[in-house]
Batch of 2 targets.
Target 1
Amino acid sequence: MREITKIAPAEGKLGILIPGMGAVTTTFIAGVEAIRRGLAKPIGSVTQLSTVRLGKRTDGRSPLIKDFVPLAGLDDLVFGGWDIFEDNCYEAAQRAGVLEASLLDKVREPLSAISPMKAVFDKNPGIKVLEGPVDTNWDPAEAQRVMASLLAKYPQIDAVMSDYGLGSMGALRAFVAAGRKIPLWPGQDANELGCFWEDHKADNPDFKLATVTARTWLVRVALRKAVGAVQGISDTEPSIIVLPLAEDSTSSDPALAPKCVRTLPPDAILSTMLPKEKLEKLFAK
């Protein structure tokens, strides 16, 4: 007989700590604050608007997930995070340019109260950040334009850190167009990025590539935990996941070598945990 797991009601405040307080994080927090104030609806939120079917379809029992599972309410969420830059959430959201200024101004007070905790550069004072954060709206063409101006401004750039694998491509093309050697490059994995490294590593000895996974697989973990909670099945997978490097061109471990599959499109994410054959079949549709 299956053991039923009892889920205790959520009580008190729920702290949410996020590494990196850029465009994605500030848009998320601003959205929650806007919903709290009745300025927006939680469109796309599984916890707030989605339902779960109980019994047969004909039973007509489909309560909201938030009414069925004892989750913390939006008013109980408290946000914090880390960043290498000192901008508070409001300033970072302004710089990112994702949200309309009219909406952003209405949540200025709570966003301004959230300042980042010091991140990795605090322990490495010898690293000098030349510019940033630089917003390119995840557009490779804009990334190329911005990087071209930075290359004209700075005769020496030892590393470029990117939060989006495909966004890196425009910046990398700017180095090639300017005839500059490509430096150390940390970012997120993407098929085109791995192929670019493979094509240019010989002519650019300082082009060391390190990426973390783009994390498309995390939805599986979340789904398994949600289904387990609803059905009373214990899920032992961790809720806090420390992301290791997905690729490291300096490593002797062949599993960490930058990956390139030329039969797949540029935006394929090879860390998705699907084998190459399945990815090829999916992208062929």
Note: The longest helix spans residues 23-36.
Target 2
Amino acid sequence: MDATDLDEVLQASSDASTPSHKDLVTDKQVNGEETNGSSEPKPLKIYYGSNTGTCEAFAKRLAGDAPRHGFKATVGSLDSAQNKLDDSAPVVIVTSSYEGHPPDNAAHFYEWLESSKEGQFKGVKYAVFGCGHSDWIATFQSIPNNVARLLKENGAEELCTKGEADAKAGDASASFCLTVNISFRTLTYGLDVFNV
């Protein structure tokens, strides 16, 4: 991405409100009833690992934005994705680390992912967004990084570079909005990644 692309993304981000609890997704948005008027929305699976609720809120915000980009999103905890990753829809994972361990609602998924075999995720297209605080330098982004690495090592295709927010650096919402805009541009205008 060059400076012009970054400027366009930042301009688009400034037009959108930053995520807050009032921006959480509605049932109509998750069910794809608020689409942009184009053809049938494409499926998108969004999973989160969250102890404090931040990653869950980001996942729901992403799902709320999805219909405007032509997608019908489903949202669930990472544990709900255990044994269910397939090529039926792109997958977005929003997660954090807790002292180097997965969040409580991601522990079973992470254990399953660690035991995955080469080629197990062939055809799965994914993106990962990690939340954390760099004061915990030894474990900062460890779970999001490992999730992205394990998916890729076992055959999944990365849709875009892993996004991350550092709570120490300030507004995690701004990092999330920037990543979401880049991700939707990739998903919408990228190489026909949704013909599965």
Note: The chain has a mean pLDDT of 75.
